[in-house]
Amino acid sequence: MVINFDRTAAYRCPSCGEIAYGDFSIFELSGTKAVSIQCACGQSNMIIAPENKNNFSVSLQCIVCDEVHKFSMPFQLLTKKDCIEFACPNVVVGLVFIGRNEAVRNSVLRNEQYVEEVIAACGLEHTGKNGVTMLKALDKIQDLSDNENLYCECGSNMIDVEVRENDLVLECCQCGTSITLSADAIRNSDFSHLEKLILKRKK
Ligand SMILES: [Zn+2]
Ligand SMILES: [Zn+2]
Ligand SMILES: [Zn+2]
Predict the structure, then answer these.
(1) I need a labelling partner for 100 at 20 to 30 A (CA). Which of 16, 23, 82, 145 fits?
(2) Which residues surround ligand 2, an ion (CB under 5 A)?
């Protein structure tokens, strides 16, 4: 029997929205050493670290909640399973995939298809890598609107939302004032913690 100690790790980058891939060997995780997988964009990473004799911990910033999630991964799983998946505990979107290269790539593909189906079911199209970000933004906009914290400086709260591939546009139905929010800006700002969103005409 040939034992293969090489593993591939993939995660959804909270900064650029792409899936980041990295390779490591189980031997690199011995003792107290951790492995860091970094996205090609350079803005995020995922840490796999020994937790105790039997477990590793996997931690990363979540693209959906903007919080750091920490998952526990038993050493046995890493040696036995072809691909281990961890999803965000708040929204069922696959965040982390660790295992043998081919199995990881297949799981990522399956998860991307699943995310696309969810997005299509929400009436969105062509969002590509920004799908998760757009869903999260729409949820937040709905929340602001429900609490009367989304309005235009003209006083109207009839705001139209249009989702495009890389950004979304909010437009006042009364005076036509609009603002554009890019997916990058939504991911890399405090958007999910906004208390108010007011449309203002550019001066
Ligand atoms: Zn990235
Ligand atoms: Zn999350
Ligand atoms: Zn207006």
Answers:
(1) 16
(2) 62, 64-65, 88, 90
